[in-house]
Design goal:
single chain, alpha/beta, Rossmann fold, five-stranded parallel β-sheet, about 40% helix
Length: about 210
């Protein structure tokens, strides 16, 4: 039985375009995987802590050398890693902030990427430990950054997220890039019409 980890990022909640497209994904995914578990993680409501000195010291200590402070600092990281280890498919719905991921998503990534846990260094270089999983990332952005366009290189989010998941072993990563959301703000298109442009891509990703 397949399992899905659904990670929402936007603080705009019901007004969020990425979350609304995520609901479309969930409808299609649950229909295709009847009875399969879905774990919800809302990073806007339950914001991750940031990596600090106790986290770093704990992450690079032997288990028998961990202090209570180390264990406390790593507790959330362990929970996030357990969630991603248990999932077959990870859905991330996120806005783009200043051409990159929001801070809460970066904080989650920093908790999940752990040497000796989700990635190991070998004589042949780093080897990710989370192979065999799928990731779908739905990104809503004010601007549009189509491939081949003059603004393509402004999109630093997509290559970074693809690289970081590959680093921990997940290479099956699909992006739905819902660009051009500013057209709704300026009254050039309705919210419904904007979302409709991307719903088929979202549905296809859910069924893949």
């Amino acid at each position: 039985m397949a399992s899905l980890l659904n990670i929402d990022v936007s603080p705009r909640r019901a007004h969020s375009f990425s979350r609304q497209l995520g609901k479309t994904f969930l409808e299609s995914w649950t229909a295709a995987h009847a009875g399969s578990p879905v774990v919800e993680l809302d990073l806007a409501n339950d914001q991750p802590t940031y990596v600090d000195t106790q986290w770093i010291a704990g992450a690079f200590s032997k288990p028998e050398d961990l202090t209570d402070a180390h264990k406390s600092a790593l507790k959330l990281s362990n929970e996030y890693i357990a969630q991603i280890q248990a999932a077959d498919h990870i859905l991330i719905t996120t806005p783009m902030y200043n051409f990159q991921v929001p801070a809460v998503l970066k904080a989650w990534i920093d908790h999940v990427v752990r040497i000796g846990v989700t990635v190991n260094y070998t004589d042949k270089g780093p080897v990710g430990q989370l192979q065999g999983k799928k990731v779908t990332v739905i990104v809503a952005s004010a601007g549009a950054y189509e491939k081949g366009s003059p603004s393509e290189n402004y999109n630093l989010l997509t290559p970074y997220v693809k690289h970081i998941f590959g680093f921990i072993g997940i290479t099956d990563v699909t992006f739905v890039e819902a660009g051009g959301a500013s057209a709704v703000q300026y009254g050039k298109i309705t919210a419904e019409a904007y979302l409709q442009q991307y719903k088929q891509q979202v549905t296809d990703a859910a069924k893949a």
